[in-house]
Fold this protein.
Amino acid sequence: MTENIHLGEKAIDPEVAQGEGGEGGPRSLVSLLAYGFIVALLGLLAWGLIRVQRGPVDSGMAPDFTLTTFDGETITLSELRGQVVIINFWASWCPPCREEAPYLEQTWRKYKDQGVVFIGVDYVDTEEEALAYIAEFDITYYNGPDLGTRISQAYNIQGVPETYYVAKNGELRGVKIGPLQPPELDNKIDELLAEPYTPEEPSQ
Amino acid sequence: MLTDVGLLALVLAFVLGVYATLASYYGGRTNQDTWVESARNAAILTFPLLTISVFAVVYALYALDFSLAYVADVSSRAMSPFLRVTALWGGQQGSVLFWAWLMSGFVMVVLLRKWERDRELMPYVIAVAMLTTAFFIGVVVFITNPFTRMWHFPGAAELTMAIFQPAGAMPYIPEDGSGLNPLLRHFGMIGHPPTTYLGFTGFVIPYAFAIAALITGKSSGDEWIRATRRWTLVAWIFLSIGLVLGGRWAYDVLGWGGFWGWDPVENAMLMPWLTGTAFLHSVMMTEKRGMLKKWNMVLIILTYSLALFGTFITRTGVISSVHAFSKTALGPAFFGFIGLTFLGSLSLLFARWDTLKSDHQLESFLSREAAFLLQNMLFLAITFAVFWGTVFPLISELVTGTKITVGPPYFKRVTGPLFAALVLLMGIAPLFAWRKQAVRKLGKAIWVPFAASLVLSGVWGYAHRMHPAVYPALWLVTFVVLAILMEFWKGVRARIRGRGESPWVAFQKLIGRNRRRYGGYIIHLGVVMIALGFIGDAYLKSETQGTLQLGESLQIGEYSLRFDSLDYYPGSDGREVLEATTSLFKNGELVTQLNPRRDYFVVQQQPVTIPGVYSTAAGDVYALLVGWEEIGFQSSTFKIYINPLIGWTWLGGLVMILGTLIAAWSPSRDREGATYTLKPRQASLSYLAGD
Amino acid sequence: MLRKILISLLILMTAGLAVLTVHAQETNPDFPSDNDVNTIAKQLYCPVCPNTPLDVCETQACKDWRAQIKSQLAAGWTEEEIIDYFVEQYGERVLAEPRRSGFTSLVWLLPVIAALLGVVIVWQILSTWRTAHAEAAVPLTTEQQISQEILAQIENELREID
């Protein structure tokens, strides 16, 4: 389509003297940058989309964490191998959490001597309200604030309450979104307790 | 049934859309007019078909046909007929259909015009425009279909969503719908989404022309710009109105005392507006001086891409926002489409790069060309800053795993100075001549508004006891207003002297003869008014909060608010209303009664805070009810905002519309080049040189 | 000896000041007022709701947080301490304005760099255009010379092809 005479790189014509390159496009640096930017942006959006579509983590190894309870104890998930662990995310400002609180405590007391650990993770809450909540429902299992929302992000929770089931070998066996109704939790714990467990060599 | 017809029309529209895309492209490539004609007819037909579809949905919403899942979702018995109709765009399915419908409407209008001058472009304009339209219709048909119904398999815990009855399932028709999100039940609902969508979809037309020009290799000419100039203006003004209405709506119902929160979805609208405005101006450079052809292409592609990007963010929730629709399977489809658009447009642009030769000659840095270039750069800088701040939380999470928030402090601080520079440029650039502006002449032109504005702003600021930091902003606004008014004055004066017309006639004729120019000036005035509103919001706002017993008052500045009573009653639409009656005093004198209230929508468990507002030219007193005693209603907590100058924002929006109407309503004889006609009577040129 | 006296004086003064400040707060019966709470809440975002500043958010959780700020203020916490506490408890997303250190400093830096780059680019383009104009403005002689040059080059390249 061009009627110009191309003289290779050397061009006298003032416009082309701007260095817009020969045929086929602008300077390769500019086009490289432009494509690079678009591809990077698309990559970012793709990652964002995948993250949005992904629900809570419900399989594979349960993400490890260390929680400092309101009483000052520290508890680390990976040190609880051999026991069934029930991780419950809650908050004092969350009405459905209040619905399941008595059932949770009741179930805890039933199974506490059978190798089951309950961990309550308090999601973005105020200490005062949290302690009041714990006192109100007379909760006796481990409970601590999720500092910096790290644990909730690791489990990618969508809201509260959510309860994660961790088997004796540390694997996630599913998640319950929403308040637990009897006998859901009992059944699940029975199921997990029935799993055989062979401890690996002590990793010392 | 009507819904069946609507569904059929929808599917037909999709088929026609795909056909139009393919046929027009094929016809263009092989130079066969019959194919192109056929594609054109198919494209035109899409609009009536979609109209049937839209009508079916609207009727279902109005008649409360709860067999449709969408109707059950956004409509309810308690809603007024007006709200039921606007619920068309209250949820994802309806709003995408609405979007597609508007886009097909634009396409139809474009295709019905005369095409003699642009015959070569037409096949590809149809192809590009219909590709986009067909995509959106396809999304409606296959992903978020408003004609989906709810079915119940006996024994199943949850409902199944499907368009056609699955074997063994029973139709499920609820007694009542959930109803529109209470925040959307506002008069602004009729204004903001439609104008915003019109703005977004309107840009597909200039984009289609640009791509067509690239494909046909005819981009060295200006045809595509000339053909779409008015479209761009139309899309732009709708987007502008959409922005202002969105702000107004937020001001009225969100209870933040402000109108712009720099939320990702708001930014998503702002970015195409910014590049669209830059584009509006840079095409002037091409028309007058044949410059910036490559840049124009870049700008329109960027504007359209940002519009798509904006709707992607809004509808997929990739970036968290208060506005986001509920997540659906829209994400991957949209992602694919914008990927295709970005990469496709870019490669086409680069392939045709050399056909976009411009005549770039600059005589002086002190010229309108230079001013335009600077302005474009400023717009782009602001767009980048907004873009960066909007996507950065996503980047941060990807790279460091930490979620962060990029809030108003960032945007204000980074874009504030750039916007200020733009406003200043807006005032002085019209004083610059094309090619070369003699410094002396510029000085002469500028010193009057400059000096006058210094005096005026100083007096104004002093009279209102404003903080010293505000003075520069005041001066800027005054200066630009005076500079613009001077343009009018000079023009009118020239006509009075040259033709002996009376001032009023001179004024009318001045504008009538140069509608684009003076329409543009009026738009600029509107922009300055909006800037004034922003200045008030950024610098002059004050607020206070306090708990009052009955009869007590809360003081702020010259105003005081006395708490008179608190009432509780059931309201319309399934809400419970808690309304406070308060009296507003200014310097001890009773001004008015304000009734801030809290509506609680029981079914959705959603509270809506509605302020009591007292508006004057100087500003608004904005009172909110933020707390109360559950029992006894003896004391309540109020929050009062004083929002100076905010009324100017809304007024500025209206002025912008006026200016656009004038600018767009140019006589259709598009005289290129000629800026005056010689009249035999007196050999005096109408103002002005360097037009 | 003198140093010890000075240091003790300094300590005394600081203590006195602290007492006075606390006293000032205590004697102001309104402290902490809602406005004091809002001044801090304005700088924070609700950790749970998307993009909602803490001073306008209406959920129960936000009310609890504002109440917490109030009690922290009453206990004598400084603004910085309260904000740090929120960041520690709820993560960096609670800040309205991203930190200027670490990775988030990029959010501030890049627009500045981009703007500066923009100015440079515009300047470059304008200069090139101006030179182009200067070159093109010289009429016939330059044109003639150019034609000659083009001709010469064509000859050369044609020869090279053969």
Summary: The helical segments of chain C are 2-27, 34-41, 60-74, 79-90, 105-137, 140-161.
